[in-house]
Amino acid sequence: MCALASVSQQIELFHRLFGDHSAHCALLNSDTRILAVNRSWRTFGLNNGLAASYRFEDQNYLHICEDAAKEKSPYANDALSGLLSVMEAGRRSFAMYYPCHSPTESRWFTLWAQTQQPASPSIVVAHTYIGPELDRTNLPGDMSAIPPN
Prior knowledge:
alpha+beta, 5-stranded antiparallel sheet, globular
């Protein structure tokens, strides 16, 4: 049986593995509260209008997805369902494509979430920039069911 890692051990390992990763990564606890984010996550926030003093930690990632889903975003609904499937249904990981356009540019990302069990009940979430357009001709497996533009 694997001993559960403490929160500080989880955060330390997260920073060692994802601290300098180009994807925007966050470590969530079992209640989907953000425990830590990497440098890319912070930089993306700064580049998109958040104050340098903004504190991502302790924000509830699931609530953010729920709020976006209430605004009728089909992508937010898919993200919410996928995250819940990892949290509650025993699914090991979830991935999807989604747009995150700004007023000045088109942007597509991959969202990936994976549980860290059995070492800990935490979840790592990563958002990876794909580009200004999504090439729908080469999509892998179950990620091909993307709504049309």
